[in-house]
Amino acid sequence: MSADEARQMFQGMLISPPPVSGADRISALPDNVLQDILSLLTAQEAVRTCVLARSWRHLWRSITSLRILSPDTAWYDILSDDPEPARDLWKFVDNLLNLRDKRTELQTLDIKFGQFSQEDLPYVSLWIRSAVMCKVSSLTFHHIGPYLCLDSLHIASRHLRTVHLASVALMKDSFVDFASCPALEDFKLHECKICFLGISSTSLKHLSITGCIFCHYSHSRLHVSAPSLASLKLDALIGIAPIFENMLLLEMACVSLGNQGADFCCNDFMSGILCRADNACPTCADYPGDYVLLAAISSARHLELISKPENFIFARDLEHRPIFSNVKTLLLNEYWCEAPGCGRLARVLKNSPVLEKLTLELFSEGPDHKIEMKGSYRTMEGPPAISEHLKIVEVKCNAVDEKILEVLKFLRAFNIRFGSE
């Protein structure tokens, strides 16, 4: 299909005659209401409405949300070598962005597609630039299939508030600097390959990085500077964990460090003896000597800290004795209750002066747990060893074995009682 033919797809469609019987109540609605309805459809479906009636012919040009869904998002289509579906999508999106009413600001551009290759990258860059020119406020770019490599992410817009990227590779060895996006508040990366060196934004409030691969061939951690951050989510990371500057406005942080990362001690893995960062262990040598995560998120009011046993980031960060001065609700897993004596949990409890609720999910990832026990802290004479504000303690597990009994014994030492105790 040529570009002219693609343009005719919009301009040359026949107008359907009015219905033979019955009133067309939908067409009687105000244009702004109809445009809101069209914004709920995919862009392809919205454009097709131009044939419904003469009054519908140009409505699609002024819709504020464009959701472009490639027809080849099934895995069997992604593996196909046929380039035609992708080429048809190029032409459709090009005409869609060129022919829409430029006087109408674009609130949302959501693109989800497969079968694209590096040869298609100029089209992607063009679409992003076109969306920015249309004053887009929310940009979502989801590639289904192998990573699509973006050389850089240089966006300048005072309207952009949200950027969500999935299955793309950011390969430039530089910082993603959002200084030219003063309104940006939400940045989400899902199943991406991250090979740039840092993220910098003074306006960013919400950051989510899930299922991403971090390149560490240069032994450089991703450096994040986002002083206005209110919420942080890190989950299922592959490679070395990013390092954060202090975030004093942080309200919530959910951090889960799995066993697919590179932050584990070779000596511990081979001999069970944890070495220090200045030892010859090649993986421990990647630890920066200062904190990576805990001190940066210590100002949060709500914390979820999950880790596999072999990951050393939280254990190393604890050596710097962070104070969780604002945390009120805290969720931890069995990583913090390891022998001897639940030392990690003890240190966190002693350094959380206003803690109100503690949840321990032990050897049970949930959300359904076979056993749930609820306890409470009872004040003792003399200076308290842990927060006087602690009202609720929950222990969730699948079975009460020796490991669980050891944790309960530890909690009793802090005068935390369960049930009829």
TrEMBL record:
Domain F-box: 23-78
Pfam hit, one: F-box
Family matches, as InterPro entries: F-box-like_dom_sf (IPR036047), F-box_AtFBL13-like (IPR053781), F-box_dom (IPR001810), F-box_SCFL_complex_component (IPR053197), LRR_dom_sf (IPR032675)
Name by which UniProt lists this protein: F-box domain-containing protein
Organism expressing this protein natively: Lolium multiflorum (Italian ryegrass)
